[in-house]
Automatic annotation (TrEMBL):
This is unspecific monooxygenase. It is found in: Endoplasmic reticulum membrane; Microsome membrane. Its cofactor is heme. GO terms for biological process: organic acid metabolic process; xenobiotic metabolic process. GO terms for cellular component: endoplasmic reticulum membrane. Its main location: endoplasmic reticulum. Heme binds at residue 435. Its EC number is 1.14.14.1. Belongs to the cytochrome P450 family. Pfam families: p450. InterPro entries: Cyt_P450, Cyt_P450_CS, Cyt_P450_E_grp-I, Cyt_P450_sf, Cytochrome_P450_fam2. The gene is LOC105999359.
Length: 490
């Protein structure tokens, strides 16, 4: 009986504390729906389609509002003006990275993507510098992308025009490019270790985008003790981390400080230079997670974009035909495309932009936080408050893009058919936390997709109008539905 009384009293205290914290904190924050004790607004959000829930809230509370995920307040920025004002005009204050428990459990806030403060600034600066200097004057990244594009085309030829699921083939090219940056060498497309590595990345992306992980991220302390896909996520992540660590060990013995071969060599050399600095961020933990971050960001995002691109081009064969016509006019069939070609291909450029806009790959961006107390649009947002910036609300703005729910390259073309830039094009986010690999991703997307369309006609297994382009999940990222197609040589 005493135990029951104790539990009832404990739960009552928890409810009172939750109610008090939520009400005291809400006075300064932007308005929002009234949260319930402990669970906050969780029941009012469709975890299968968070972006639509945010759009509905914005209609009631405006472009800046507060939601409670559990007892934690999160300020949501919805619409171009609010997102731009925060990430660009107040870039430093909104450059923090909020916690992401599903990933923090194995990354421990190391690396580039989910680190914060001094560590993030140092790891990002080093990674960008290394990517820019990649090849040490021997070969540019574009050379390697073109080489990998040739390998991709040869692998697609081996399908002999028979139906295939393109997922792993399309992931191989960007993954090999990242391998050449991090490990110096690429893998054969049939290499079992290589395929297993990509399988782990692909599986984790689906798990991270699932409704279950949205629940886990809000109540990690509770759900840690329950079975579920978060356990598989951790197991896959540990496999990737161990894979990278083995490569690091292989690099240490032949390391030549005067002749770095790849990202790992550069990092190890920096570690040696700072071995007496006890505050140094150049540690094995940061090296391994930085490499894993580059893999994750550079493989799955590009592979998923390519997979979605082929699906959309099959759905709209008249658009694919116009792109192939422009390819014939500018590049022909016997030369691998280069980035200079893009400026001479306005329609193709518009199609590529429209693909990235339409698929809305990372609907709610990665979680931000404010680095200091800030007055924003008349509200006080305390230091450390979580921030969600809805990229969907920018990419689907109906004032900038007429009929944004339609796939239409005309969104990026002027009346004369010339390519038209848009400040609303933010698939890589914007501001200080903009994707560090944006330039590489844009290069890969262009060269790989053009090489595919140069050499193959895309043949769906069903009538184009019956193709489904609605993502199967869009929590962390928008994942396209599975499909098969035939690559018919031209």
């Amino acid at each position: 009986m005493d135990t029951v009384v104790f539990l009832v009293l404990g739960l009552s205290c928890l409810l009172l504390i939750s109610f008090w914290k939520q009400n005291s904190g809400r006075k300064r924050l932007p308005p929002g729906p009234t949260p319930l004790p402990i669970i906050g607004n969780f029941l009012q959000i469709d975890i299968k389609d968070v972006r639509n829930s945010l759009a509905n809230f914005s209609k009631v509370y405006g472009p800046v509002f507060t939601l409670y995920f559990g007892m934690k307040p999160t300020v949501v920025l919805h619409g171009y003006e609010a997102v731009k004002e925060a990430l660009i005009d107040h870039g430093e204050e909104f450059s923090g990275r909020d916690t992401f428990p599903a990933i923090d459990q194995f990354s421990k806030r190391h690396g580039i993507i989910f680190s914060d403060g001094k560590r993030w600034k140092e790891m990002r600066r080093f990674s960008l510098m290394t990517l820019r200097n990649f090849g040490m004057g021997k070969r540019s990244i574009e050379d390697r992308v073109q080489e990998e594009a040739g390998c991709l085309v040869e692998e697609l030829r081996k399908t002999n025009g028979t139906p295939c699921d393109p997922t792993f083939i399309l992931d191989c090219a960007p993954c090999n490019l990242i391998c050449s940056i991090i490990f110096q060498n690429r893998f054969d497309y049939k290499d079992q270790d290589f395929l297993k590595l990509m399988e782990k990345f692909n599986e984790n992306l689906k798990i991270l985008s699932s409704p279950w992980i949205q629940v886990y991220n809000r109540f990690p302390a509770l759900i840690d003790y329950l079975p579920g896909s978060h356990k598989k996520l951790l197991k896959n992540a540990n496999y990737i981390i161990n894979f990278v660590m083995e490569k690091v060990k292989e690099h240490e013995k032949p390391l030549d400080v005067n002749n770095p071969r790849d990202f790992i060599d550069c990092f190890l050399i920096h570690m040696k230079q700072e071995k007496d600095n006890k505050q140094s961020e150049f540690t094995y933990e940061n090296l391994v997670i930085c490499a894993a971050d580059l893999f994750a960001a550079g493989t799955e995002t590009t592979g998923t974009t390519l997979r979605y691109a082929l699906l959309l081009l099959m759905k709209h064969p008249h658009i694919a035909a116009k792109v192939q016509e422009e390819i014939d006019q500018v590049i022909g069939r016997h030369r691998i495309p280069c980035m200079q070609d893009r400026s001479h291909m306005p329609y193709t450029d518009a199609v590529l932009h429209e693909i990235q806009r339409y698929i809305d790959l990372v609907p709610n961006n990665l979680p931000h936080s404010v680095t200091s107390d800030i007055k924003f649009r008349g509200y006080i947002i305390p230091k450390g408050t979580a921030i969600i910036t809805s990229l969907t609300s920018v990419l689907y703005d109906n004032k900038e893009f007429s009929n944004p729910n339609d796939f239409n390259p005309g969104h990026f073309l002027d009346e004369s058919g010339n390519f038209k830039k848009s400040d609303y094009f933010m698939p890589f986010s914007t501001g200080k936390r903009i994707c560090a690999g944006e330039g590489l991703a844009r290069m890969e997307f262009f060269i790989y997709l053009i090489c595919i369309l140069q050499n193959f006609k895309l043949k769906p297994l069903v009538d184009p109008k019956d193709l489904n382009t609605i993502p199967v999940c869009n929590g962390f990222t928008s994942v396209p539905p599975p499909y098969q197609l035939c690559f018919i040589p031209v």
